[in-house]
Amino acid sequence: MSIKITFYDSPRPYRPMWEHQRNLFDSMVARKRAGEPCDEEHLLMLEHEPVITLGRHGHEENLLMASELERRGIECIRIERGGDITYHGPGQLVVYPIIDLERHHLGIKSYINLLEEAVIRTIADYGITGERVEGATGVWIGRGTPTERKICAIGVKCSRYVTMHGLALNVSTDLSPFTLINPCGFTDKGVTSIARELGHPIPLPEVARTLTAHLLSLLQKP
Q: How does DSSP classify residue 62?
């Protein structure tokens, strides 16, 4: 089985991409249920047009200013991934792996750990130290300090060991829309981006290539 990598070079509206990855996911799950081989896995890499998504168990009270969302034309959509509430927009690298965890000898916890590790290695290539925070999925900067801040959110759905949704890494994202929510349900933690940490912008396609290399390397480990 091969992994087909698709990189979209302009921001995409959320709903059509959500439907596209659901179709890929449903097709792979159906083949597994039927005992048929899954010929191809997928890695979708893109930016979204501004949108807020709320996980299946997310709390609506973490949406702080619904009227401001309406004024800005930003939709809030409840979806089937884990995690709480987050923002997607231009300058943020969103990665949707639609893969068979059984093929890669992974459970869901080890898969989440793998996604975090790929991001930690990616931002390390830019001189940024990323860390895990216990009880808070994703990748963080300044762990345990008053300025602890999140650079990457992770939320997935898994059925029959097939995955959808994935991660959102802030590359050069406008972070101001995060003030409209309690990001990932936290009221006492900030958000950041690669550009903010470095003090200058970084091309998103370059980061996408770096992250892809780390993801594939980790997935291909025996």
A: G
Q: Is 45 exposed, middle or buried (0-12, 13-18, 19+ CB in 10 A)?
A: buried
Residue 12 DSSP one-character state: B
Q: Is 211 left (phi over 0), alpha (psi -120 to 50) or beta?
A: alpha
Three-state DSSP state, 86? strand
User: Is residue 152 among the annotated active site residues?
Assistant: no
Active-site position among 38, 152, 158, 184 = 184
**Counts for the chain of helices (H) and strands (E), in that order:** 5, 11
pLDDT digits (tens, 9 = 90+) for 39-68: 789 999 999 999 999 888 878 787 877 788
Q: Is 77 helix (H, G, I), strand (E, B) or coil?
A: strand
Specify whether the CB–CB gap between 169 and 130 falls below 8 A: no
> CB-based contacts of 207: which residues, under 8 Å, 6+ apart?
93, 122, 169, 171, 194
The model carries a pTM of 0.94
User: Is 152 in contact with 168 (CB distance < 8 Å)?
Assistant: yes
- Could you tell me the CA-to-CA distances from 56 to 1, 81, 92 in Å, in that order? 31, 6, 22
Contact by Cβ (8 Å): 21, 98: yes
